[in-house]
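User: ok so my PI wants both of these folded by tonight, can you help

Assistant: No problem, let's get them done. Here's the first:
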Amino acid sequence: MNTYWKFGAIVAVIVGVLAWLAMGGVTESKTYYKEIKEVTQMGNQAQNEKLRVNGYVEQGSIVRNGAQVSFVLHQTPSMLQKDPVRLAVVYSGIDPLPDTFKDNAQALADGRLGQDGVFHASKVQAKCASKYEAKPQMKTPQMKTEAKPAMNQAQS
């Protein structure tokens, strides 16, 4: 009976360690998707969370300084530089920025909000809506009326 208790204790320890590792992995990789307005409303709480922020790259705001790229995101695409909801972003990741990352492009930045109010991104994704739209359907040319009787005879 003593052997069963030892075996049970070892199994319990293994299950406990696996559960602890799983919970640690989930909380470490958890990222909250937020709009710029929501990040500013979070205040100091935003500095403690890993965030994914969505916005549009402000025209003329992309500045490359070696491996670091800084830019400004704004919330409303139609307002451009008049948009009061803005967020300064500094990207210092190891991956190159996508080709679609340019002025007025929709972008997602993953990272943390610094104490200085600047969002420090470790990953940036850019969207280009026109690139992913469906191509217009081409109309098939109508068969000539002379070809129709020949087609019918061939099928018979």
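One down. Here's the second:
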Amino acid sequence: MPAGAAAKRACTLLYTVMDLSITRRLPCMTLPDPADFPVRAVPLAPLAKERATIICHRNQRVLLVARGRASRWTLPGGVIRRGESALDAAHRELREETGLADLELAYFFYVDGSVKRHHVFVASLPRGAHACPGREIALCRWVGIDAISHWPASAPTQRIIRQFAGLCAASDLQPRALTRLSSSR
């Protein structure tokens, strides 16, 4: 295409965007060729963040945390930093939010939310391990797995706990055995 024709098309596009009526007043100018503007497929809702999420369980209860008294309850976890593995992020977030360190974590699954992908890990807390709110967290609570649906927990938290409970029930496994089986793989 000659340089003059490309400039003419670019001018027409500029005027078309600025004022559609100008195109009608300038009949010598033509509309741009659609082939000059390739269409790119864009996902409808690209995932903005990846998150490490940890199910800490003991005696048919799971550990939930809240940032404030009026916040929804969630499973411990947070955003995976650039260059950090999901497992390293899970250990870091668990330590920062609850003070729990050096726990054996087993990768369970991932679940996509509206803007986050949750990489879910499972940890069975040994006797004597206590969760205490860290600087980012105001409250820690142990909640019965069956009570989660009635608890003011976030939608992803409820979904993850349902899947965890479903797998335990379907496999006829206690959550402690599930953690041991997962970590041996």
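DSSP finds five helices and six strands in the chain. The radius of gyration is 26 Å. Good luck tonight!
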